[in-house]
Write a structure and sequence with these properties.
The chain has 160 residues and is an all-alpha fold. The protein has six helices and no strands. It has helices at residues 6-12, 17-24, 28-35, 42-52, 66-113, 118-154. Helix 2 (17-24) packs across helix 3. The relative contact order is 0.09.
């Protein structure tokens, strides 16, 4: 990764290596290696570019190697996949919350609108209270076991 402009961009923003590392959520050693011209991953390039407020291409002098171009293209594609993944994940969370609230409102309506025997009323009331208590654990289970694996398959460059 010779010919990168990370040090120049960092100094132009009056950042120390430590400050840039903290801002990019990488180690100081990673910044040192990159500034020394060593190879780093595409995800690391994205983190550093975002911390500096520039695109990945701006981290490099005019490209003279296909390896650098390949890394830049991979970093761009990874950023596109990250954006799509985030949007899809946020949509799932909003959908889950909406469906859950609708179900709970429906259950609440049944409990208080219909004449029910005391036993059925008590059971529905316990279900209603318990439903609110299990909302977060159920959502977490769905995310870990269903949503994240599906997003990992759909957006492989974003998988951990």
């Amino acid at each position: 990764m010779q010919n990168n402009k990370v040090k120049k961009l960092r100094l132009a923003q009056h950042l120390s290596q430590e400050q840039l590392a903290e801002k990019a959520n990488v180690s100081v050693r990673t910044i040192q290696r990159l500034e020394a011209g060593k190879d780093v991953s595409a995800s690391t390039l994205n983190l550093i570019a975002n911390a500096l407020g520039v695109s990945v291409e701006k981290l490099f002098s005019p490209i003279n190697s296909s390896e650098q171009q390949e890394k830049i293209n991979l970093a761009k594609e990874q950023q596109v996949q990250l954006d799509k993944r985030y949007t899809e994940f946020r949509t799932f969370k909003m959908f889950y919350s909406s469906v859950y609230v609708i179900i709970m409102l429906f259950l609440y309506t049944i409990i208080y609108a219909l004449p029910l025997s005391d036993n059925i009323y008590d059971i529905l009331e316990i279900l209603w209270i318990g439903g609110w208590m299990i909302m977060i654990p159920v959502r977490r289970w769905l995310i870990i076991n269903k949503v994240e694996p599906r997003l990992d398959r759909k957006y492989p460059l974003t998988a951990d």
